[in-house]
Amino acid sequence: MSVPFTRSLPYVLRDAIKSAETGGLRLMVGTVVSTPDARHVVVSIQGQNFTVPRLKSYNAPTVGDPAYLLVGPSLLLAIGTVQ
Q1: Into how many domains does the chain fold?
Q2: Beta strands in 1-83 (DSSP E)
Q3: Which of 38, 7, 82 is nearest to 27 (CA)?
Q4: Nearest to 82, CA basis, from 71, 69, 51, 74
Q5: pLDDT beyond 60 at 20
Q6: Cβ distance 31 to 43 under 8 Å?
Q7: pTM of the model
Q8: Neighbours of 30 (CB within 10 A)
Q9: CATH code at 72?
Q10: Helices and strands per DSSP (H, E), number in the chain
Q11: Is 50 among the domain residues?
């Protein structure tokens, strides 16, 4: 069964990020501090450390790498990095 394009993850995320002014999602960049386990990463954002869950497809991050975070009113999720 195929998923309609308007229900695909990239489309939904783009739409939510566009509406960030109304409390939607936005992207932030932090720095990887450590990886306490296989499902979490500790990220430094503006000098404060946060332990956040990471996507399963986010390969083991390296300390010091940038980490892209998906941020919402009740969401903080590490989604990947650029190398």
Answers
A1: 1
A2: 26-37, 40-45, 48-53, 66-72, 75-80
A3: 82
A4: 69
A5: no
A6: yes
A7: 0.71
A8: 23
A9: 2.40.50.140
A10: 1, 5
A11: yes
